Give the backbone structure.
Amino acid sequence: MNETVFFTGVIALPLLGALLATVWTRQARAIGIAATLGMVLCAGGLLLHVQQHGAVLLAIGGWQAGLGITLYADGLAVLMVLMSALVMFAASVYALKYFGSAQKHTAFWPLWLLLATALSALLLAGDLFNIYVTLELLGISAAALAALGGKREGLVSALRYLVVGLLGSMLYLGGIALLYAAYGTLNLQALATQLQAEPAAWAALLLLFSGLMLKMALFPLHFWLPPAHSNAPAPVSAALSALVVKAAFYLLLRFWLDLFPPVLTPWLANALGVLGAVAVLWGSWSALRAERLKLLAAYSSISQLGYLVMFLPLLVVLEGEARNLLLGGMVAFALTHAFAKASLFLSAGILLQHCGHDRIRELGGTTQRLPLTTFGIALAGIALVGLPPSGAFLGKWYLLDGAFSTSQWWWVIVVVVGSLIASAYVFRLLGHAFGHLKAVERPRVSGMQELPALLLALLATFGLGLGAAGIWPLVADRSGVIP
Amino acid sequence: MTINLLTTQELYVLSGVFLFTIGLWGTWLHAHYVRKIISLNVMGAGVFLILIALAYRGKDLLPDPLPHALVLTGIVVAVSATALALVIIRRLEDERDE
């Protein structure tokens, strides 16, 4: 009974909120806050439920799989749902004061809540077609939100974002058409039991993965990400970079773990790992050379997603306890990146409003005027570099551990070089922020904007670093996947 | 005398694959965004054709309703995405005129 409420709550609350905010524009802000807060509570409840009772399957309205819509929550899914609810809530609080005109608020809140709906529904979807629908909903609402900036550059990058998203979805749809032709079902659990290593499965894997790689901006399909993420309004950038690309990665991981094990080969895993490694190096290097803070954050997302993909070649060869440790480390890394990157984008938005620009070279004096924001940026930077006690440190630790124990030393070099460049770009940013500049009169920044950014950064560094122990038992138990 | 090189179903599937491929090609290569959107729709039509062909179960049997439902949903999604893209393109064109 309880889990039904939580399940429907995370998806229905933001959907209802989106409808209400469309009709009742004056109260859009209050509705937005209430809906995202409700999501956080329901996601927390769902997490506790899964922790106690294991994975849950829900057939909506009693219609069984094949005809009805099934929702499925295991440890991995609920962690991601809670992550997205927390980031959406923090960014909502931030957005209250961010948009100046009432018109912007009217346009923002319905789309924002639709984005939240799409995220929760995608993370909990139990069959491939519902994943397709939620992917499209996510892509369309994300592109519309990215266009809200209104400037020409923003519109062009939002349009490109939309086209890339649609292309990715079409590839995905082609993949599921093949799977349906071969196996006659789209239910994830049913497919997982039937899938065999044969040409149809291979072709479907290729189509599904190329669609998802395009959506998660894995090198060399990353070209659309920096302009789209850096030109959007700050709360939108935070959600795009922290959550939307991660949703595509989550699907890739889910298919990797549950659906395609019979067709996976170390060869494929290594090919993906190499792409991830190039993304790490190239993304960090571009972040180091970026002139604007928001571009720096966007390039750093490319490199952080590269790290996540680099876990895959180790997941294929490791077994048992070592594999579970690695998987937990990977999830800790993904969660940390979500909180840290959201925080960094929110802080960048504060700087953009406060100084009128986000050119890194000219950020001198920020520390004196905005100590809280600078502290938040520093904490988020610690999490991005992967210093202890952040969750990213745990992730990189298990990545290195896995690479050593399987004697694949070349991944170690990439992690070390990538982390070095990451610390270079974080300290370059902080160096400029600590620079001294004579005080000028600047618009004031509300604490309602500084606090969410700071709290997210704290969550990434201390919350996840010290409280990550709960992740491992949640993701390690994958026994409930096939009933 | 007729030679059956292809069944109707296979013909439909192959045409779908063909449409999908030229759509993919067009989306990737065309620079103009209206062309990209049209190519995406061609690609979508290809997938829908494949799915409809898959629903065929034989002369005397009813077709499989599930792929039909998928195609209907897919069309709705494609229409709304196209609409959004066209609105953004329109906005860009308006700005250029000013």
Chain A has 20 helices and two strands.
